[in-house]
């Protein structure tokens, strides 16, 4: 199913073959909400025809919306710095990653994988 939008604490998904729409609650979504972006295709778990959960693709590409600049030679902060994704989730990224860049995230661990050129 394809993720369409969030309406309060409800998340709307559309079956791409029948165009039927189903809603999952924030509790059913869990931590997956950190990686949900409009039009992402997910597997929805159904029980007696009702959606009860979802599984995301192993990797998603998300845009960095906020990241502090890195000063060359700044080693006090370590090898990573915090960056906010377009979903609002904050991850640790290498210091060379800047705002506006697209990064690949492992949805199983919630960690940065690589920078993506699009």
Q: Could you characterize the architecture of this molecule?
A:
The chain has 118 residues and is mainly beta. The protein has two domains: 2-55, OB fold (Dihydrolipoamide Acetyltransferase, E2P), CATH 2.40.50; 59-116, Nucleic acid-binding proteins (OB fold (Dihydrolipoamide Acetyltransferase, E2P)). Helix content is 3%, strand content 47%. It is built from one helix and ten strands. The strands form three sheets. Strands 8-7-6-9-10 form a five-stranded antiparallel β-sheet, with no helix packed on it. The chain has a three-stranded antiparallel β-sheet with strand order 1-2-3. A two-stranded antiparallel ribbon has the order 4-5. The protein is elongated and about 60 Å long. The protein starts with a strand and ends with a strand. The model has no long low-confidence stretch (mean pLDDT 90).
The named CATH superfamily of the largest domain = Nucleic acid-binding proteins
* CATH hierarchy: architecture of the largest domain: Beta Barrel
Largest sheet: 5 strands, antiparallel
| Number of DSSP helical runs | 1
Structural Rg: 16 Å
CATH topology name of the largest domain, in short, is OB fold (Dihydrolipoamide Acetyltransferase, E2P)
Distance between the termini: 24 Å
Residues in helices, as a percent range: under 10%
Shape: elongated
Output the strand order for the largest sheet.
8-7-6-9-10
Mean pLDDT: 90
Tally of domains: 2
What's the gist of this structure?
With 118 residues, the chain is mainly beta. It has one helix spanning 26-29, and strands at 2-7, 10-14, 21-25, 43-47, 50-55, 59-67, 81-85, 90-93, 102-106, 111-116.
């Amino acid at each position: 199913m394809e993720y369409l939008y969030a309406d309060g604490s409800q998340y709307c998904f559309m079956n791409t073959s029948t165009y039927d729409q189903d809603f999952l609650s924030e509790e059913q979504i869990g931590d997956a909400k950190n990686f949900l972006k409009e039009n992402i295709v997910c597997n929805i778990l159904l029980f007696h025809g009702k959606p009860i959960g979802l599984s995301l693709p192993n990797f998603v590409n998300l845009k960095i919306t906020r990241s502090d600049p890195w000063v060359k030679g700044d080693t006090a902060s370590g090898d990573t710095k915090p960056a906010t994704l377009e979903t609002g989730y904050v991850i640790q990224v290498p210091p060379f990653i800047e705002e506006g860049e697209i990064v690949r995230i492992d949805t199983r661990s919630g960690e940065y994988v690589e920078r993506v050129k699009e």
